[in-house]
Amino acid sequence: FLVRDTRRAIQEAAKKPCFICSKMGATITCWETGCDRSFHLPCAPQGECVTQFFGLYRSFCWEHRPQQAVQTRPRQNNTCSICLDTVEDKASYKTMVCPACQDARFHRHCIQRLALHAGICFHCPCCQNRELFVMEMLTMGIRMSKRPPSWESEPAVGPSDQRHSRCDASMCLCPGGRKHTEEEGPWKLLLCGSCAAEGTHQHCSYLESSTSFWECEGC
């Protein structure tokens, strides 16, 4: 019965168009009752959708996604506490605020990158709050790694060219071989967003051209 239900779910998903890119095969549907918007996971950032990577793994479209209930404090400079580039002066999909100190602001992509690298040590980069901060980030769709911080597993010294640089797909389809890589296109090499110890060409793992985040099977 489980196999039959899985097949039925796949068949139904194949008939659903993504409301963001309009292509078929949208497997994610908004959790809000009465909302029939479906989308692909790689399309979620473009459509400002939220997928929660904990509990029931709920997903929401741009209209029904959770919102931060924080009152941002006035600041002279509206800058991201991580990259120091300009951010909005209020909480939004792209600009997030620490619920504890309500002063730290950061781009969504900046705090997502920090969450993956910090792993189990993830906390607010300004006030160091962990419990309230982590729960808020998870609710807002930030994905965390359950690994130790990446800086603890990396060698203390060593040349920068030791970065993983080969395709580890079970069958590499690249004419140039596993170590061939290009800046764009099907032979662009993506490293695992959690461990950075394995890689794949986009085409070898059948990824969309817009895919910028990928995880290996071990993660």
Automatic annotation (TrEMBL):
Pfam short name (any one)? PHD_G2E3
The RING-type domain covers: 80-128
**Keywords in alphabetical order:** Metal-binding, Zinc, Zinc-finger
GO terms for MF: zinc ion binding
Domain called PHD-type: residue spans = 1-65
Q: According to its record, what are the GO cellular component terms?
A: nucleus
Q: Which PANTHER family match?
A: PHD FINGER PROTEIN, PHD FINGER PROTEIN 7
**The protein's name in its UniProt record:** PHF7 protein
